[in-house]
Amino acid sequence: MPTSIDVTKYIVGAAEVYYRATDVLTPWTSVGATLDDVVARIGRTLFNPSDTINGIDEMIAGLDYQRAGQAEFEFTLPEMSGPKLALAIPGAVTTTRATTTTGGGGSSTTTAATVVGATTVPFTAVTNFTVGDYFKIDTTTATEYRRITAISALNVSFRDPLLQAHASGVAVVEVDGDGKTVVTASTVRRQPLTAYYDWALVAQSPADYYEIIIHRGISTTENVEFTFGDETLAGIRVTIGARKSGTDLTLPAWEIYAPAA
Fold it and tell me: Of 133, 123, 137, which Cα lies nearest the Cα of 165?
C-alpha cells in the first residue's frame, strides 16, 4: 500500500500550554509557559487505491485521498508537580507523602544552631525517634523535612543537607512524610481514554496571538529528559502528539487559529 509522508518542521517559539478533557468546551487548565521554543511537526499520509486494483498499472490522477493526519509538538514543560508529570508520562502513578504530625511520635527541640549544609542536628531528647522516621525542623518560619538515617546519643543524622539555617531551640517533630511526590513508572501497555486530552498552545506573533489546538493528544515521548534546580523539578522535555486515520478524520488532529492579517 503506497504511503506518502509530507512532514514539515516549524519553530513556533515560546508558548503557554493548556489542556482539558477531550471533545468538550470546559475551561482550560494551565500547565505554564514553555521553557524553550516549541517545535511543531505536521504531516499526512496519502493513499491511492489504484495501486491495489488488479489490472491497473498506472496511477489514476485524482484518486489520492488522505488516510491519516499527524501532529506533534515538542517542548519543555516547567516546574511540574507529580500530577502534571503524569501528563507527560501517561500512566505514571503519583503519590504524595503526608506532612502531618505522627500520633505518638517524637517531639523535641534543637540544642544548637544549625547551618546550611548540615546533615546532623542535636536534639534535647530522641524519645520515640527511630531510624527511618521523618521529622520537620522549625515549625514556624523555615520548615524543612528530613528522614533519619542514624541516631548517635542525642545527635540525629539524615542524608540530604539542610537548605536553610535554623536557630537553637527550634521545634523538631516527627511527621508521616516529607511532602515529596513519588512518581513510579506505568505498567499499562495501552492507555485508557482518560489519558488523552485536548491541548492548546498559545504563542504571540509580532501583532497578535495565535493558538494551536491538538485534538485528543497524548504524550508520545519515548526518552524522557529531566532538568532540576535545587529541590524543584525544573522541566521535562515532552512530545505531545495526535493522529487520525481511516474514518476518524472527521475531527482534525490539529487546528491553528492565526492572527488576522
Answer: 137
Each residue of 239-261: pLDDT tens digit?
898 888 776 777 788 888 877 76
**79-127 per-position pLDDT tens digit:** 666 667 777 777 777 788 999 999 999 999 999 999 999 999 999 999 9
What residues are paired with 172 via a beta bridge? Answer: 108, 137
Q: Are 224 and 237 in contact (CB under 8 A)?
A: yes
Query: Where are the chain's structural domains?
Result: 4-93+186-257, 107-179
Is the pTM value of this prediction over 0.85? Answer: no
Q: Concatenated DSSP letters for 141-170?
A: SS-EEEEEEEEETTEEEESSPPSS-B-TT-
Question: Could you give the CA distance from residue 248 to residue 68 in angstroms, rounded to a whole number?
Answer: 9
Q: How far apart are CA 75 and CA 85, in angstroms?
A: 14
Which set of grid coordinates corresponds to residue 221?
515521548
Nearest to 15 by CA among 204, 240, 179, 187: 204
Rounded to whole angstroms, how far apart are CA atoms 162 and 166?
9
Question: What is the enclosing helix (H) or strand (E) of 184?
Answer: strand 181-184
